[in-house]
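Need residues for this backbone.
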């Protein structure tokens, strides 16, 4: 479950070659979230499988009455 945030970062991947995308290679989004947290925003990042990420996005949208969202692909 995600906490209340001003911004969420997602790096979503399909499972491939039995490799887990949750571990390693995603320092950028976590560093950016940490920087924003230090500067007065509430930010959180998630890196992992597409299906779990979509579940978290749906949960955040439903629970927090999101009116203005931006998705960058």
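Answer:
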């Amino acid at each position: 479950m995600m906490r209340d945030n001003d911004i969420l970062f997602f790096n979503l991947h399909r499972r491939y070659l039995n490799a887990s995308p949750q571990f390693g290679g995603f320092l950028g989004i976590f560093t950016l979230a940490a920087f924003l947290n230090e500067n007065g925003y509430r930010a959180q990042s998630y890196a992992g499988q597409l299906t779990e990420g979509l579940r978290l996005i749906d949960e955040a949208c439903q629970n927090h009455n999101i009116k203005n969202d931006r998705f960058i692909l």
